[in-house]
């Protein structure tokens, strides 16, 4: 099928994760972009009839726009692989690696990209060793300020910036609200950027980095998805050599994790111009306030055309057996 032919595309959005509403918004934007190009789009939630629907309807491709565990931890993607229906995005094994922030940090660091010093603590560690001694050891070994976050998840849910020792216990409680394992990471001061990486057949390409500047405080869940709470600069206000280093770090991270088709790599650029890897997202936000659509526009491209090109690439990869 030629890339310009109309495709039967199933857009998956919603689900039962904490990021359900964001997923629905992303999915509608993807569907709108594909519909505008003449593709036949079916908008679906991942429910008890999904797998039988895919088996009976056999669409050309599935476009998952599922955020959170339901779409990014690899489980659903593994089932999609078993159906034999092509789908956009990373395969199950790579998704599992990226979904675990500590695992992703380890693999990306081994590939040569800087990542902040950190410690990963399951909730059971506090029960076994005592909360007081564990927190004292953390504070003795990692310099403030710190970032505490769930080891899995996205959209900054459960994330706290700790600037004083008295804030750490509450930050741990907030992180454990979203999972049984927390990551405590030294906060690197600098410019926060996010880099969308796309691959439509010519290899992973970093789109222009987007600089993130919250109007107040940190880049929280609300700041991400409520218009006017964050200033975005696309492209980021970086010197040319720093922009190149950021793009290189993002593509290196994408490759190190074995990601496919699209990703968003989050980084901090310090005063020396060094990019520090924070995390990778196998399904970036695609809402009206999200970073990847801004990066696509900054690259001089149309969002719908990029989403369609990714769908065509997923079909091509399935035909050639490319993993």
Automatic annotation (TrEMBL):
Its EC number is 6.3.2.4. Pathway: Cell wall biogenesis; peptidoglycan biosynthesis. It catalyses: 2 D-alanine + ATP = D-alanyl-D-alanine + ADP + phosphate + H(+). It is found in: Cytoplasm. InterPro entries: ATP-grasp, ATP_grasp_subdomain_1, D_ala_D_ala, Dala_Dala_lig_C, Dala_Dala_lig_N, PreATP-grasp_dom_sf. It is an enzyme of class 6 (ligase). GO terms for molecular function: D-alanine-D-alanine ligase activity. Residues 105-312 form the ATP-grasp domain. Keywords: ATP-binding, Cell shape, Cell wall biogenesis/degradation, Cytoplasm, Ligase, Nucleotide-binding, Peptidoglycan synthesis. It comes from the Bacteria. It holds the Pfam family Dala_Dala_lig_C. HAMAP family: Dala_Dala_lig. Belongs to the D-alanine--D-alanine ligase family. Cell wall formation. This is D-alanine--D-alanine ligase.
């Amino acid at each position: 099928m030629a890339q310009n032919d109309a495709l039967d595309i199933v857009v998956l959005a919603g689900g039962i994760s904490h990021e359900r509403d964001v997923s629905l918004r992303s999915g509608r934007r993807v569907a709108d972009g594909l519909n505008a190009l003449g593709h036949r789009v079916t908008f679906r939630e991942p429910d008890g009839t999904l797998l039988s629907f895919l088996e009976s309807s056999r669409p050309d491709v599935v476009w998952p726009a599922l955020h959170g565990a339901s779409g990014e931890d690899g489980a659903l993607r593994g089932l999609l692989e078993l159906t034999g229906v092509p789908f956009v995005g990373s395969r199950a094994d790579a998704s599992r690696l990226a979904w675990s922030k500590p695992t992703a940090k380890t693999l990306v660091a081994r590939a040569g990209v800087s990542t902040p010093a950190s410690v990963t603590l399951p909730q059971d560690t506090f029960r076994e060793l005592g909360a007081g001694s564990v927190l004292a050891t953390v504070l003795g070994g990692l310099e403030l300020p710190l970032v505490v976050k769930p080891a899995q998840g996205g959209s900054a849910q459960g994330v706290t910036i700790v600037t004083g020792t008295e804030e750490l216990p509450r930050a741990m409680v907030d992180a454990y609200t979203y999972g049984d394992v927390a990551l405590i990471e030294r906060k690197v001061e600098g410019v926060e950027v996010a880099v969308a990486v796309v691959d439509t057949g010519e290899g992973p390409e970093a789109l222009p980095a987007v600089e993130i500047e919250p109007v107040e405080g940190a880049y929280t869940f609300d700041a991400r998805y409520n218009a006017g709470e964050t200033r975005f600069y696309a492209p980021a206000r970086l010197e040319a050599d720093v922009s190149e280093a950021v793009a290189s770090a993002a593509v290196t991270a994408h490759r190190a994790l074995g990601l496919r088709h699209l990703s968003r790599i989050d980084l901090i650029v310090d005063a020396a111009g060094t990019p520090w890897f924070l995390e990778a997202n196998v399904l970036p936000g695609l809402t009206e306030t999200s970073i990847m659509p801004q990066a696509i526009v900054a690259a001089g491209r149309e969002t719908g055309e990029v989403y369609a090109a990714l769908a065509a690439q997923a079909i091509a990869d399935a035909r050639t057996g490319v993993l």
